[in-house]
Amino acid sequence: MAAEFCHVHNHTEYSLLDGANRIPEMVARARELGMGSLAISDHGVMFGVMEFAMQCKAQGVKPILGVEAYVAPQGLHKKTGREENQTYHLLLLAKSLEGYRNLCKLSTVAALEGYYYKPRIDHELLAKHSKGLIGTSACLGSEVCQALLANDYKKALETAAMYKEMFDEGSYFIELQDHRIPEQAQIRADLIKIATDLKLPLIATNDAHYLCK
Description:
- The chain has seven helices and seven strands.
- The protein has 213 residues and is α/β, with parallel strands linked by helices.
- Strands 1, 2, 3, 4, 5, 6 and 7 form a seven-stranded mixed β-sheet that branches.
- The longest helix is centred in the last third of the chain and has 17 residues.
């Protein structure tokens, strides 16, 4: 029997200047489509998590709590240089209460210590608070995907291997997206190859910022 599909990469109005989903309508739409669960993964923040969880409970949908974190590869305390060169995206989802607590810790430190244009974490902080979390290679803005776009398969493979070791067994996924963006098609075969080489599971997502097309 085929596994049930649900959206696990979703941005709400709490992804400021980016997401257009209103939480009650987003949950209602998932229920309308017969989806038993749904995730929230706003950019760098968890401000919408409480409202989301309550709406899911009220509408009979299982909430999956997460965040699309901004990762500062040079460390969260480095605050120089151009903003767009400072962060990569990383999707994080809680699979347990411990994972939720770690998400809260990561988001708090990102805002209070790592903020530089955006709330940021780094590899060291994530390694300390990765228990109970699921991580994915995320969108084109991730470390893995950016390395592939730069034609550096070795770096992409090493980065994915680092994250595989950072998370619990079976909890780091290679994420595939198809929004008819040429760059996504360009790196898809290499993403699948990384998953094969490292024996990582694959996940297909739609980086949803709107309720309908």
